[in-house]
Amino acid sequence: MTHPRLLEITPQTHHVQIDLAYATDRNFTGKPIYKAAHCLLLEPAESALRKAVEIAQTIGMTLKIFDAYRPPQAQQVLWDFLPDPTFIAELGRGSNHSRGTAIDLTLVDANGAELDMGTGFDAMVAASEHFHPGLPEQVQKNRTLLLGVMHGAGFTHIASEWWHYELPGSRERPVIDNSESGPLRLM
């Protein structure tokens, strides 16, 4: 059986910023989940990311990636910490991050500052919804800008997280478990 191919995403090869939050304690669990920060995507998602980078560049922006491929064991750690299907996919269902087809990211302006999205990445609150009512107009514009970049590149979004994008049809793909042989090791 051929295993799906995960490609490494780097600032040098993809012209993105990378800050893998789950390799640090700057995530909602308060502890690192990955031992090493390797940003990986399945080939079709990597190709779509390249399109998103090009679109972002046309408006003077850069993409900043917080998470991409996530081993199923890391998904279990997140579920154990916050068993809320609004924000975390149950292991039985499988996360599209664990399929290599989902990416968490934001936009960065020409000065290197993240656009104000109203909440931080992985803020598991109602205000993280893409179109949450009552957010400031500039926050809505920034979220819509990110949405346009990512949809233009072929990604779709989920309602509950402004930062999460995935390839259409991701659920039909298998979960990839490279935790033993791949570069992403768990703490």
TrEMBL record:
This is D-alanyl-D-alanine dipeptidase. Its cofactor is Zn(2+). Belongs to the peptidase M15D family. GO terms for molecular function: D-Ala-D-Ala dipeptidase activity; metallopeptidase activity; zinc ion binding. InterPro entries: A_A_dipeptidase (IPR000755), Zn_M74/Hedgehog-like (IPR009045). The active site is at 161 (proton donor/acceptor). Binds 1 zinc ion per subunit. The keyword Transcription regulation does not apply. Its EC number is 3.4.13.22. The record marks 70 as: Transition state stabilizer. Pfam families: Peptidase_M15 (PF01427). SUPFAM superfamilies: Hedgehog/DD-peptidase. It is an enzyme of class 3 (hydrolase). The keyword Hydrolase applies. GO terms for biological process: cell wall organization; proteolysis. Zn(2+) binds at residues 97, 104, 164. It comes from the Bacteria. It catalyses: D-alanyl-D-alanine + H2O = 2 D-alanine. It comes from Caballeronia humi. Keywords: Cell wall biogenesis/degradation, Dipeptidase, Hydrolase, Metal-binding, Metalloprotease, Protease, Zinc. Catalyzes hydrolysis of the D-alanyl-D-alanine dipeptide.
